[in-house]
């Protein structure tokens, strides 16, 4: 596939991928977003109401 290159180790096993970002940049962004979401799935959550209250208190949000 053009724009996709596999990097292999000395045994010929695929260990990484090079992606042409001009060609597949938006696809990479989607893939990266999924990785970040999976990494953060167990982090504590905060309700929208609490976020708005905190930002309003700091003067960063005018409601």
Task: Explain what the structure shows.
This protein has a two-stranded antiparallel sheet. The chain is elongated and about 55 Å long. The mean pLDDT is 95. It has 2 helices and 2 strands. It is α+β, with helices and mostly antiparallel strands and 63 residues long. The chain has one domain.
Q: Strand portion, in percent?
A: 15-25%
Number of helices: 2
Number of domains: 1
Mean pLDDT: 95
How many E strands? 2
Helical coverage, percent range: 40-55%
Succession of helices and strands: EEHH
For the largest beta sheet, what order do the strands appear in spatially? 1-2
Shape: elongated
- Counting helices, strands and paired strands, the structural category is alpha+beta
Query: Which segments are poorly predicted (pLDDT under 50) over 5 or more consecutive residues?
Result: none
Euclidean distance between termini CA atoms: 51 Å
- Sketch the major β-sheet: 2 strands, antiparallel
Mind telling me the C-alpha Rg? 20 Å
């Amino acid at each position: 596939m053009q724009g996709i290159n596999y990097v292999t180790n000395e045994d010929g096993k695929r260990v990484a991928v090079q992606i042409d970002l001009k060609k597949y940049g938006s696809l990479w962004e989607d893939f990266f977003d999924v990785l970040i979401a999976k990494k953060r799935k167990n982090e504590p959550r905060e309700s929208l109401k609490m976020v708005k209250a905190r930002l309003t208190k700091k003067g960063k949000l005018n409601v």
